[in-house]
Design a protein that fits this description.
The complex is a heterodimer of chains A (122) and B (178).
Chain A: H1 10-20, H2 28-121
Chain B: H1 15-34, H2 37-53, H3 61-85, H4 90-101, H5 108-117, H6 122-132, H7 138-145, H8 149-177
Helix pairs in contact in B: 1-2, 1-3, 2-3, 4-5, 5-8, 6-8, 7-8
The chains are: A mainly alpha (122), B mainly alpha (178).
Chain lengths: 122, 178
């Protein structure tokens, strides 16, 4: 009996291990079960596919629509902001012109007064 | 017997031929990893259904064999983890299952060795099963498990040492009893 002695020779033990671990035949039912599941899954997959494709198309359309709405909102926000800044710029320009007009008027008045004084002194 | 997968060898056979060719390999890998015939059959079924779903990605007969070994080992490991998480006492289950398996094994001694194999840590068990069931080299085992070669060599060495130590103590008692 080979196992009465301790396993000093690893080759012998390995040989026994290899012999023990030979492949075992799979149960006969395995093939039937796999083929049956496979056949059923194929049927389900084929019936699911058109609906799945339709759903995928809808999802993409929804994504595109959402992107367009977002782009529209962002664009109008940018345009609004640009309009506000432009209006503020116009207002500032008008204020500068008004200030210049006032200053110009003041200079004219002063100039007239100076001319009047010159005439009086002569 | 075992070859590491390299693209472009043989053309890919159809699913049924692959199944016929590899069913005993996948079933035996799952059986040696889990020690449970029922669970091994479930795992083998899952593995082949996964192969069917992934046939488009399989490039050759060698690739299919490589893929099946890899998936069979990883599914077996997952199944053991799930079973542990559910709180089953693994050693009790394996012991019970190997009781029923002894009837089908070629020799009572063989079934005792298989029972001892089931007590090894999973990584060591996987390496030993691939080495001695599939006659794979450590390099091929490393490629299949996606592990470094040094780790695989260490698992093989430690697993074999542990198995030998267990066999020395347990099987001597068994032989005396016989």
């Amino acid at each position: 009996m080979p196992f009465e002695q301790p396993f000093e020779h690893i080759d012998e033990f390995e040989r026994e291990l290899r012999e023990t671990l030979k492949r075992q035949p799979a149960p006969v039912s395995l093939k039937y079960r796999v083929m049956e599941y496979r056949r059923q899954n194929r049927g389900q997959i084929q019936s699911i596919r058109p609906a799945q494709r339709q759903r995928n198309r809808m999802i993409w359309l929804e994504r595109i629509a959402a992107s367009l709405v977002l782009a529209g909102v962002a664009g109008s926000a940018l345009v609004g902001r640009y309009a506000i800044e432009r209006r503020r710029g116009e207002e500032a320009k008008q204020q500068v012109f008004t200030a210049l007009r006032i200053t110009n008027h003041a200079f004219q008045v002063m100039n007239e007064q100076l001319q009047q004084q010159d005439k009086d002194s002569h | 017997m075992a070859t590491d997968w390299q693209p472009g060898f043989e053309p890919l056979p159809d699913f049924e031929r692959l199944f016929d060719e590899h069913q005993s390999m996948v079933f035996s890998l799952a059986l040696r990893m889990t020690g449970d015939r029922g669970l091994a059959e479930e795992i083998a079924q899952d593995v082949f259904l996964a192969l069917d779903e992934n046939m488009g990605k399989i490039e050759s007969a060698q690739h299919a064999c490589f893929w099946l070994r890899r998936v069979a080992i990883s599914r077996s490991t997952d199944a053991l983890r799930r079973r542990r998480a559910r709180g089953f006492g693994q050693w009790v289950e394996i012991d019970e299952n190997h009781g029923s398996q002894a009837e089908e094994s070629s020799s009572p001694l063989g079934s005792r060795i298989e029972a001892l194999l089931a007590t090894l840590p999973e990584a060591q068990r996987a390496a030993i099963v691939l080495r001695y069931q599939e006659d794979m080299t450590p390099e091929e085992i490393a490629a299949t498990l996606g592990a470094p070669l040094a780790t695989v060599k260490s698992h093989l060495q430690r697993g074999l040492k542990l198995l030998r130590a267990k066999a020395e103590s347990k099987l001597k008692e068994y032989i005396r009893a016989v």
